[in-house]
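Late entry, written up from scratch paper. The run itself happened at the end of the previous shift, but nothing got recorded in the book at the time, so transcribing now.
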Amino acid sequence: MGFLVATACGLVGNYLILRRMALVGDAICHSILPGIAVAFLLSGSRGSLPMFFGALVAGAVTTVLIEVIHKKSRVKQDAAIGIAFTSLFAVGVILISLFASKVDLDQECVLYGEIAFIPLEGSVELAGLKLGPPSVVRMAVVTLVVVLLIGLFYKELLVSSFDPALSFSLGINSTFVHYALMAMLSVVVVSAFEAVGAILVIAMLILPGATATLLSNRFPVMLGLTVLHAALSSVLGLHLGVWLNCSLAAAMVVAATGLFVVAWVFAPEQGLVSRLRKARSSDAAPLPETAGSAQ
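Output as recorded:
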């Protein structure tokens, strides 16, 4: 589950980093709360299905609200993100306090998840074959869909992320691609937060892509490094969490941060060590002699 969450979040997060929209994931994570509250009030159930659709609608509303505030006013995008997610999160807290205070439904069920409880969910069976816990099966499907969509629309996503004007000249509707990317982000976040918590999803959206950015300048290589980062952070985080007897999801994020620090220091071209060596070699190089001194 940790690998699937980190992979799906990391692949989508690469495009958010390119677009300088990494905090949109933060906004959607926090705005999930009112969607869950409304879904509970309408359905009267705390089942995964109504919670999933309620959170998904809330994520879509957050995306549209950010774009409306940004494009229909002089407010910059970062400010629009802050306005949207803080307002919706506050609305969710009020709804839960007023209508669901006596129910086991609070902010912590969204902000904090426990991946260690996943084996207790049971198992999904298909044609007599046990596939695994429902949340793992759902996350596997979402991850597979993300990989397929990136493969099918690689050019459209890449061009619109780097240069919207160029994408328009090539006949690519950058606005549609943007909303499609935000919809995919909402699905990934909603599918992941039940296991690892909304706050930790934010880290998984940023850390794999940020680490890959330090290691390569070619985007296909960065996507591959993102998957490798997801695998390493999941395995190392699992062992770290068991060793410290702490939250496995938090340990996976700590492991992911450790991998980022290693890349930050030792990356071949962008690392601190490499830059320090280049600076020393340039300082030690002899200055060229002038014409006067040569005579």
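The domain at 2-113+135-278 is CATH 1.10.3470 (ABC transporter involved in vitamin B12 uptake, BtuC).
(Scratch paper discarded after transcription.)
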